Sequence to fold (338 residues):
Amino acid sequence: MSDKPLVAVTRVIPQAGMDLVNEHFDVRLWEDELPPSPEELAKLLHGAVGALTLLTDTIDGEVLDREPQLRVVSNFAVGYDNVDVPAATERGVIVCNTPGVLTETTAEFAFALLMAAARRIVEGVDYVRAGKWQTWGPTLLMGQDVGGATLGIVGFGRIGQALAKMASGFDMKILAYDTYKNEEAASEAGATYVELDELLHQSDFVSLHVALTEETHHLIGADELKAMKSTAVLINAARGPVVDTDALVAALKDGEIFAAALDVTEPEPLPADHPLVSLPNAIVVPHIASASVSTRNKMAALAANNLVAGLNGDRPEGLVNSDVFDRARRQGVSAKWL
Ligand code: DGY
Fold:
């Protein structure tokens, strides 16, 4: 029997993270490629003081109540909509995420999606693969220009700001929408804050970078898609439910917008027979915006370090609910498992 604290790790993560958790903890690891079911997750968490979770694991009040010894939930993602943070805070459970390390990688992927949809690259590849390429065509697969176009960024946090900086290399005009306004960041990135409606009307490209909350659920629905230009491209590298999928399918079919490029979908995974998959003006990829070798290693190391710090009574770098940590510090009851 090991005398190290028991933690659950809900999937095999890149080596940098696995090495760290194995060094510090007795690790109960979910080794399958597919996520554990809620019942399997419950078994995995049983008796653990910490958990390294993925965005596919639901951690809510019920889960936390079953495991009152659980002190730290470290999510291997910047987004943490799979964790009920108020429920964790109420129960004194520290929640962590992996901000910062995936900013550039995610922003560059959003830009890659933008370019691919604007210039119809996937359709071009399919065309050649299908043996349809007979000659150079004066009107073949005509797309939209990116240089000098207007990019509307919905959610102007770290990733949105990084995207704005990349887009400035293409002389794009940047509009930003966010409920929280950071004027300094906007002026540094050459962006102008506008209301959502104005952004949708004016933009040639609309890229989504908001967290999924009750307020952003279906933020882009039928009315918002109608407000966009018929030549516009929608990019989503945030969370699938920010867009109303049925409304998007209808808008793409009716030519209300030119194209959509999606790293994330609702539902996720999207079944292969879903209409979005076969629409020529939709690009769907399997939630891989942060998936570079270097970034996934950094995310793994940060998620593991968050767990180590949280269970050692130290402030984790990616602490989401600082209330819990500060309260424990004030009361002199910080976790000290290591
Ligand atoms: C996140 O971190 O929230 C992404 O969706 C996966 O990298």
Q: What stands out?
A: The longest strand covers residues 150-154. Residues 103-284 form a domain with the Rossmann fold fold (CATH 3.40.50.720). The chain has a mean pLDDT of 97. Residues 55, 77-79, 102, 290 surround (2R)-2,3-dihydroxypropanoic acid (CB under 6 Å).
